[in-house]
Write a structure and sequence with these properties.
The protein contains 5 helices and 2 strands; from the N terminus they run αββαααα. The protein is mainly alpha-helical. The chain has a domain at 6-69. It has a two-stranded antiparallel sheet with strand order 1-2. α1 runs antiparallel to α2.
């Protein structure tokens, strides 16, 4: 037997019930699949299958309606929540200093991303290349540099002013 649709299954069960009533209704007991039933109990058993399918359909329709209601309410609520978050962040900030206040509202401060090792190495190499290109040195290197006067130009002393 294939797996029929729910409607086809219910139709088939209703036809089986009609056939059982017509051909097995006057027997005291019938046995199917190793189970013994009184005809009325068998009919009730099969009607239970149909009732369970109907109950599932009703529950599914109710669930669908509830989900649609929930989505509608959430669609109205979400813009308000976004506005509240913006107002709170605008008033208290989005830094680690405001973490306690933000936690009360259920928000967390913006976290900074830690640079990766590759980025740190590239940054250090770039800084060193820039220092070499500009010829800049640190305090200790500058202190070691001592200037000497230019020997080629004669040193002249200004004459005293007469006055």
């Amino acid at each position: 037997m294939s797996n029929p649709s729910k409607a086809a299954r219910q139709t088939r069960i209703q036809k089986v019930v009609a056939g059982l009533t017509k051909y097995y209704g006057n027997l005291p007991q019938v046995t199917f699949a190793g189970q013994t039933f009184a005809p009325a109990a068998l009919l009730q058993f099969l009607q239970g299958d149909i009732a369970a399918s109907d109950a599932v359909d009703q529950a599914r329709a109710s669930l669908t309606q509830l989900v649609q209601t929930e989505r509608g309410i959430q669609a109205k609520t979400n813009p308000v929540l976004v506005a509240i978050r913006s107002a709170v962040l605008g008033q208290f900030g989005n830094t680690k200093d405001a973490a306690e206040v933000l936690a009360v509202f259920g928000y967390s401060p913006r976290s900074t991303r830690k640079p990766r090792a590759v980025e740190l190495v590239a940054k250090a190499e770039k800084a060193e290349a820039t220092r070499k290109a500009r010829g800049t040195t640190g305090k200790k290197a500058k202190a070691k540099i001592k200037g000497t006067p230019n020997q080629s130009a004669p040193v002249t002393t200004p004459a005293p002013a007469k006055g």
